[in-house]
Write the structure tokens for this entry.
Amino acid sequence: MRRGYVGIGTVVLTAIWLTGCNSSNFSPPTELIAATSGSSQSAQVNMPFSVPLVATVTMGGQPVSGAFVVFTAPSSGASGTFSNGTNTETDTTGSNGVVTSSTFTANGTIGAVALTASVAGVTATTMFSLTNTSGPPASITATSGSLQSATIGTAFGAPLVATVVDANQYPVNGVTVTFAAPANGPSGVFANTTTTDTETTNANGVATSTTLTANGTTGSYSVGATVAGVATAASFSLSNVAGALVSITATIGTPQSVTVNRPFANVLVATVVNGNQQPVSGVQVTFTAPATGASGTFANGTTLDTETTNASGVATSTTFTANGGVGTYTVTATVPSGAEPANFSLTNTAINFAFYVSGLEAINGGSNFYGLAGSVQVDGNGDVLGGEQDYNDGIGVLSPQPSGDAILPETGALTVDSSTGLGTLVLTTNNTSVGVNGVETLAVQFVNANHALIVQFDGSATSSGSMDAQTLSSTLNDGNYAFTLSGVDTAYLPIVFGGVFSVSSSGTALSGTYDVDDAGATVTPTLGTSFSGTISAPDAFGRGTITGAIGISLNYYEVGPEAIRIIDVDSTDAGIGSVFGQGTGTFSNGSLGATVFGVQSNSLGSLFAAAGMFTVPTSGTLSGVADVDEFDNDVIVTDAAISGTYTVASNGYGSLTIAQGDLGDVSVLGIYSTDPNLNLNDPNNTTSGLGGALIADLDGFTLNGTGVLIPQTDTSTASFAGSYAFGAQTFHSPRGAKLGWEFDFVGQGAVSSGALNNASGLLSDPFFIFNATGPDGTDTAKFTGTTTPDPTNAGRYTMKLGITVAADPVNFNTVIYQAGGGQLFWLNADKTDVSVFLGVLEQQGSLVTVPALAKTESAQER
Amino acid sequence: MVAGAHFLLQTSAGLVDASLGRFAFDGRDALTLVAGQQVEATGVVRRIEGAQVFVVRTVEVQGKVYVIRNEHGVAMSPQARGRASNKMDADGGAL
């Protein structure tokens, strides 16, 4: 119906024609239709489009009301229906010329939908462009890439392809698909080197993974492909197969050796390549060490370690630590393909300790001087593998020379408490004159894995000394050295030596200068005597001889390049001491600064001990405080202000004089400077307690001894805390039925707030100075005391040390001098005591690699 | 008090504290004393801790001379006495 339009239009057209047109250009206006809104929409199939289709009809720029507009959608393919259920409907424009369709609903076909709107009777049309889209993902399927195989460590030939469709099986575009391979076992990695990969579907609903590379484990497995909203993943069945062309080689870490119980310097590194010698990444390499015997463990504490090769085909093991067994063995590195294993040749070497003690012998007609030095080799389980030693008591009972005593293999053992470092070392020798029919027992208190304080602990003697890990070499180093030696002369009277010398001719010759204080010879010490001698090469235990020097025959045992123990092996005299390197520098008075010192007679000397500390107000002078207990001279001076002078020559040879009367009879000391980078009490410790000098007391017939000067670096009480190992050699009035005046002890305990509480140790008392000492002359002991800092001398403390053997507590008034937090001297010196001791407290380090960490505290109790 | 053995020596000057050291009664040529026995001792008197002490070097008992300390005052251990005795025998001389 166009009635309304005709009536009105006639009037208008007439007016226009009369006023604005001529007969030649007049053309009646036509109706136009344009899409106003609703185009460019999308809707999921079978779902309504969100807005209706709107068109506007105009004629001559004016809206046409009442015009009939026909909306027509495709009759097939992607299309839809209006509310009348068909693909077309007719609507009428309003007064504004606008016509609006009913809701248009997409049919079930995805794709572009071209709708037209036309005015009835007019050719003009307009177009609406709509799109029927797919629905949400309804399923995902593995389209291709499944059922592939790849050689381990190589890429699969085809990517994994998954297709996502909606409920109508229409592909879903633009959704994320996640491909996930197994995290363990047979699997593979995508281009991102992980086991997962995310990709987006294309217009076909297809997602394609990056390249998947098989890992090093053979076997079948599934890779899943998932998409959000779909419960069931697509699954790709894949298989890693062995590749005969993959090979593995040991690249780093073979051969190498390490001392038992210690980590190897290099981790084990294997490289995996394919047949083209190209590195293969992602291959699992399994390092396997022997399950028994000489072997070791990886960081996981087991003999197995599995690592994956990196992009360079390299697999690197965790740290490998030797066990206690000694020997060479093979650690293999294998790959799942079964390629020939890579072999790492590793060796666990035994640990050698040099030991030396001196004291008082209780057998062989003693009390005699007692000196013992040797080397013992143990495995990481503490089993003794062999060794050598020299023993001398100065009365003609000594180890045969030149062989010395053999320490027999497999009959002795080092047994140490893992928490305290306290234990025993039993040595079976071929010399029945030592120990108990040739079996010696030493109490050992480890300070760290390389150093222990030791005492004889079998009733045959009592003595104190040190045991230190050896670094063996085939010759002694040329260079400069300092030494002291203390013992008895041919008249069985005390004698001490001190001096400096140079080793030359590739470790075979020495020459130098020495002092000697010989109570059996001259009235005053003989100073500055030149000497020379010949050195033999050390044997496999670091043992050698020094002949022609200082008038006695010496054997030596290497501790390391700058530490050597020496023992007099003459049948008519005896002595024991140490040699330390002097480093490469020269010395002067400036070599001495703030210093702590300790000096003590030997057990057959005029018994005394002294300790103190001093500063150097001006070069060549000293001022400080010290204590001395001259047991035999009955001179006891405590908390004494001391002053004096000293000189040190460029070769480290010097002397120190304490003003007469300041420190009893202690006045003249020889100084023999040592390497400032050397710890004299712990020669393997290269980080603390460094520097100083050997000293010899040279006060004539009634007083001589040996000791050390140590730089004083830290006097704070806060530093004197932690776990300490300690020991001391004690001279005491004889109390037992057998004449003997010495007991020795080692132990360990914590110092906290200045208190040493219930420290425990082992005490050697073959002369039964303690009432309750066990019948074999040895026992356990408890140590308790509280330090009191000297208010006027920082670094000096006093302490009443209680030593309890069974129920037999005895107090010892003690003074402590602190060189640093790691190293202190303690001296028993008191007018009410009938004893004197000198010893050390050394802060404990790690005990992890100490051999034979097997004995428990309870097992050690007697 | 000097460590080791002591005995009280009655002299014309009164009682004297005599120090014999650690070794006098032990080992070879050990000293034997009986209370009331007449002895002859040589040595030096030292003042130690405020008291007079006779530091004995030799003791002669019934004609036998026991060397307690050597000529330098060093206490003679049994081994030292033995060495000294052996040396004296070898030298054919007296101490």
In short: Helices of chain A lie at 3-20, 857-860.
